[in-house]
């Protein structure tokens, strides 16, 4: 659909340091992104500015330096560690005579390589189309000409207008398909809620070790690698937690600093597993010197997707890369687990994580026995609907003796609905 420069494997990286804290990006993170995309770096051009240049982003002199560097190294693509405007990309491409990619485009390319499920591929395509829709003007060299010739005489629609219309139609089609997939995912979520199975979602900065931890806990074969965005598609597995019972563990896409808004919007369905979770396991690479900044970046994304109110348990992973670090549980002022130190790769401290999960999820579980009189079948059936009956039997008076196990919030709702009647059925343990 687009006539573009052939993107190759050799790239010149460009990193501009800005005085404003909010505009700063991480050069090391750019290297990781480029490596994850399978591109070889043939050099880095750095610079310093107070604010972006309107034409070239990096200033005229620096842009000419980049063009000369590209020529000398015979590079195929220039990758900026920043978000560029369509006009800036176009100007730089004309100057450098090669493909220019910004940070958002690089992340989208990695996402396109990693997506494996039908939903993941649709979400990536949606994000790419939204990103390209503002850059269509760079895609053709004959935009001024209208279609013509035998069989092509149309209503005077230019090629650019045709492309925009096709893009809009394709975006509508993808949104409809994603809506259908979201409904299917919602049905599964409702079924879990009816059975009152708690959901625990793994979140964290990309490459913190979430998938490795997920595989260690669930004995799954989820793709895990030492690279950014190894996981894109959400994976759900059932686990057993002592004193809590079955729970669902969800592995989700990793977050990153200044995550493009198009990606947040496109992956809303995937991130729903995070928004609907009962507990978030925030996995942190404790061997990373930027761990505190990464935690803050994850908090910002959680706030953006309305998941900032969900209870969190910090999991400090990769302690095997620290000297004298041992598996342990840190507690808050109320005595509740707040941090777990472990190594998923070295299989250290996994038992402590399960202990912390038992404490964090077990507090909200009600475990009691009730004697239902023969005329209270309505409330007994409600308990079965909630999948809260663990066992049942009968006594000599014809009462149904049931052992119930359910979340505290559901027990309180039942008590309120029965106007306290169920409290009279509770058996002393």
Automatic annotation (TrEMBL):
GTPase that associates with the 50S ribosomal subunit and may have a role during protein synthesis or ribosome biogenesis. Gene3D superfamilies: 6.10.250.2860, GTPase HflX, N-terminal domain, P-loop containing nucleotide triphosphate hydrolases. SUPFAM superfamilies: EF-G C-terminal domain-like, P-loop containing nucleoside triphosphate hydrolases. It comes from Ferrimonas pelagia. InterPro entries: EFG_III/V (IPR035647), G_HFLX_dom (IPR030394), GTP-bd (IPR006073), GTP-bd_M (IPR032305), GTPase_HflX (IPR016496), GTPase_HflX_N (IPR025121), GTPase_HflX_N_sf (IPR042108), P-loop_NTPase (IPR027417). NCBIfam families: GTP_HflX, PRK11058.1. It comes from the Bacteria. Belongs to the TRAFAC class OBG-HflX-like GTPase superfamily. HflX GTPase family. HAMAP family: GTPase_HflX. Pfam families: GTP-bdg_M, GTP-bdg_N, MMR_HSR1. Residues 198-365 form the Hflx-type G domain. Keywords: Cytoplasm, GTP-binding, Magnesium, Metal-binding, Nucleotide-binding. Monomer. Associates with the 50S ribosomal subunit. Its main location: cytoplasm. PROSITE patterns: G_HFLX (PS51705). This is GTPase HflX. The gene is hflX. It is found in: Cytoplasm.
